[in-house]
Structures are given as C-alpha cells and as structure tokens.
Specification:
The chain has 454 residues and is mainly β. The chain folds into four domains: 1-80, no CATH class; 81-169, no CATH class; 171-300, no CATH class; 321-451, no CATH class. 5% of the residues lie in helices and 35% in strands. The protein has a four-stranded antiparallel β-sheet with strand order 7-8-9-10, with no helix packed on it. A four-stranded antiparallel β-sheet has the order 11-12-13-14. A four-stranded antiparallel β-sheet has the order 15-16-17-18, with helices on one face. The longest helix is centred in the middle third of the chain and has 11 residues, at 218-228. Residues 21-26, 28-42 and 155-159 have low confidence and may be disordered.
Length: 454
C-alpha cells in the first residue's frame, strides 16, 4: 500500500549573536512556527540563523567540512551605525564581474559623516559626486568612477582604491529631517523639505541651497510643517511633474487632512493647490504618475468622449477654483461695481467678499443667446455677459438673512452699485462635470471700482 510520509527537516545552525532587543520583529510563519528564528526581541540569546544547504533547496548540496576561518571579535553584537556608509566589491555587467556580495574586512570599505548631524536618510549619485542627505546636513563626496566602470575583473589599481572621497558639506544648516520621500530631482535641481526648520529647499550643482518656501509662502509652510511635529505618520511626499516642469509637494496628516501644491520654476512661486493625495509620485519619459490605494494613475491624459477628464483625480471629480485679491489703491475705500474676466466660457463667480464683509450673490456662467427673448432675459439675469471677447457682470449685494442695510451702505435693485471695501476676495469656479473634455483657461480677473463717497 502506498504511504505518504510528511518529512520535517530544519537544516540550520547558529552563527552569530545579535542585539537582545530588536524592534518591529517579523513573526515566523508556517511551517516554521515552532522553530526558534532568533528574532524574539526578548531572549538575551538571540542569534542569526543560516541554512546549511546551499541555496536552501531540497536535496541540494549541504555545507561540507573544509577550510574554516575563525575571527575573534571584541564586540560580537550587532551595531547600528546611522551615520556610516559601506560599499561592496565592484559590479561590471559587461564582463560578468559581480562582487556586490563581498564585504572584505581587510579593506577600508566604510565612510562616516558627522554623527552630530543625525542619521543618513538619502543617498543620490550625480556624475562624480555622491550627495549625502542627513537629518541636519547635506554633504557631497567624490566618487571614483574608475573603480566601477574601468575595472575589467582585475584588482583595483593603487590610484583607484578610494571609492568614496572626501566628504564636503554644503553651505547652510539644512537637512532632510526624516522625510526622504520629499526628495525629487530634475536635471541639476534637487528638491526636498526640512521639517525641523519648516522649509522647502532647492539644491543646485553650484552648491546653492535656496528656500523656495520663502517665495510668497513662508508663513504657510512654516505653519503646515511645524504642525506635523515629529510624528512619522504625518508624511511628506514629493515628486517632479515632468509634464508641467513643476515640483509637486503633498503634506499629509494622519487625520487624513492634506495639502498638495506645486512650485513652478518659470514664475518662481507656488502656483496651485491640487485635490489629490498621492502615496508616491514619479515621472517617466514625458509622463507623470502617482500611486493611490495600491494603483498607478497617469496624469495629464487627454479626456476621451464620455469619460470625465479634467478635475478627475482617482475617480473623484472636483470643480476648479481660482482665488484672487482685488486691491488696487489699498488705502482707498472703493465701490466694486462689476466683475470682469478674460478667458474661456464656462467660468462663474462663486463668491466675492469685500473687506467690510459685504458679499455678492453668485453669478452664473455665460450662455450664448439664440433668440431675442433669450437676449432680453440675459440682460436682467445673474449671468456673465460677453462683449468684445470679455465677460462682465454687475455685482448684486447679498442681503439674505434679513440683513438691514445701514445708511450709506451699498444697495442693489433697480440702481445696482456693488459692494464696498478696501479690497475684495474673488473666487471663480469652473464646473468640471459639465466641461470634462474641454480645456477652460482663465487669463485675468478685474473689477470696475470707484472711490467711495463714504
């Protein structure tokens, strides 16, 4: 009678003691649940475990008795050197040389940076330089490229033994904190954030480190980054949008609130806010991608017929809004009588609030009249009118809520005169559900205003 035998074998042996406490230890899974893996984090006798069969396969060659090398270590326990780099042997795919698994203790294969500047968070190789991002400092070191590209399987020459050269710090007391995910690069520009100093930075090849968060957004990023604290669940995600040539930065809190904005080199400023919260961002060829909910999303796609395109992020459509401040002659109290804009049809006035808290009623988008009756209706409707390719509308003050006008205030009715204040905040809105496949640009927003008679 045929019989099936279940074989249980564990070809392992203990080779080196590690630290007694190891954080975030993985739990063993079947069929090794009852095997001491050496990662308990509690037992003081934790050890590394190696399989005794080559490649760990069934019936493979076992570790044989042969020449043994012994070494006496004064401190046999594991070390965490947060400010040190280690490199292996060379790799050359052209000649088949692959020594990346060799770490010879007989050679100087480690380089350390100043531990006072915190741990190394990110390494970026650029030409002959290795850029080292610590928590509180950014440095660069010369890389000996001859050691990597010129060796044809032979030993390194005397002139090429130094793989990582002298480490030279960049000017400025800036680092990347513990947010390597904020790093993005395009050409010779590197972008990243320093949460500890509440800044967003740009590093160029000439060594200049510029606070791009100071370009009109110093207070904004100071408040947003300082509010994150040191909690690692509060994440900062950066990426370069090669389609628009913008650095995109997403500041995400653990309570699911977020701010996603972009920096434009052409205007030297932060030009927009976005309504998507990416997990990760990257550019490939001429396309910009982001990850969300385990899926890859392609941005800047030309909308297809019947498919929502503009304003559609991760399957959710949101309206586009533009906020502007009208503040000509700041010291003069003005009557804002009209709202005007230059651009495409479809934009509407969502709100307009003056410094005196006077507010206007919303104004709908322009609708082309096809008859005399429609033209007459438009004259008295709260819609934008079109004249000489420019859209305008009279402002009507919002007096809802049984507001009683005071003497001298601006009123509307048969004699429309707008709202009064030193300045006014205007919010223009575009319905992306209606205009899903048509690009709608907004060039300028203005208002006809006269000095108030008080």
């Amino acid at each position: 009678m045929a019989t099936t035998l279940e074989l249980k074998y564990f070809n392992t042996f203990w080779i080196k003691k590690i630290k007694s406490v190891v954080a975030a230890n993985p739990q063993p899974t079947a069929p090794y649940n009852n095997v001491p893996r050496g990662y308990s984090g509690v037992n003081a006798d934790d050890w590394y475990i190696e399989e005794s069969r080559i490649r760990g396969g069934y019936n493979n060659t076992t570790v044989d008795f042969g020449v043994k090398a012994y070494i006496a270590e004064d401190n046999p326990q594991q070390q965490n050197r947060i400010n040190t780099m280690i490199y292996s042997g060379i790799f050359n795919s052209r000649t088949g040389v692959n020594n990346t698994n060799q770490f010879s203790v007989a050679e100087e294969i480690t380089r350390s940076v100043d531990p006072a500047n915190g741990s190394i968070q990110l390494l970026y190789a650029e030409d002959t330089n290795l850029i080292i991002f610590q928590e509180d400092k950014v440095s660069r070191a010369l890389i000996d490229k001859d050691a990597i590209y010129s060796a044809e399987g032979s030993a390194l020459t005397t002139s090429g033994r130094l793989v990582i050269g002298q480490i030279v710090p960049y000017a400025g007391e800036y680092g990347i904190s513990k947010d390597p995910s904020s790093f993005a690069v395009y050409g010779y520009r590197k972008y990243f954030t320093d949460r500890k100093r509440n800044t967003v930075l740009r590093l160029t090849t000439n060594g200049a480190m510029v606070e791009i968060s100071s370009y009109g957004m110093h207070d904004f990023f100071r408040d947003k980054l300082s509010a994150l604290g040191t909690t690692r669940q509060n994440r900062i995600i950066g990426g370069f949008d090669i389609h628009t040539k913008n650095y995109v930065l997403s500041i995400q809190n653990q309570d699911n609130s977020y701010i996603t904005s972009n920096f434009d080199e052409d205007v030297q400023g932060w030009t927009s806010f976005y309504t998507y919260k990416p997990t990760y961002m990257l550019s490939l060829n001429s396309s910009f991608y982001s990850f969300y909910d385990g899926k890859l999303w392609l941005h800047h796609v030309q909308p297809e017929e019947g498919v929502t395109g503009y304003g559609n992020y991760y399957g959710t459509v949101t309206d586009s809004t533009v906020k502007v401040i009208l503040n000509s002659q700041p010291s003069v109290v003005k009557n804002f009588k009209t709202i005007n804009y230059e651009g495409a049809t479809g934009w509407q006035l969502d709100s307009m609030i003056a410094s005196s808290s006077d507010a206007t009623l919303p104004i709908n988008a322009y609708v082309a009249a096809t008859s005399i009756d429609q033209l007459e209706q438009q004259i008295f409707s709260l819609n934008f009118k079109k004249k000489e390719n420019k859209f305008f509308a009279n402002l009507q003050q919002d007096l809802t809520g049984n507001i009683t006008p005071q003497p001298g205030e601006v009123l509307w009715g048969s004699d429309i005169s707008g709202i009064k204040g030193f300045w006014s905040t205007v919010v223009m809105k575009l319905n992306n559900t209606t205009y899903y496949n048509i690009k709608k640009e907004l060039f300028a927003v203005s208002s006809n205003a006269v000095e108030s008679s008080y």
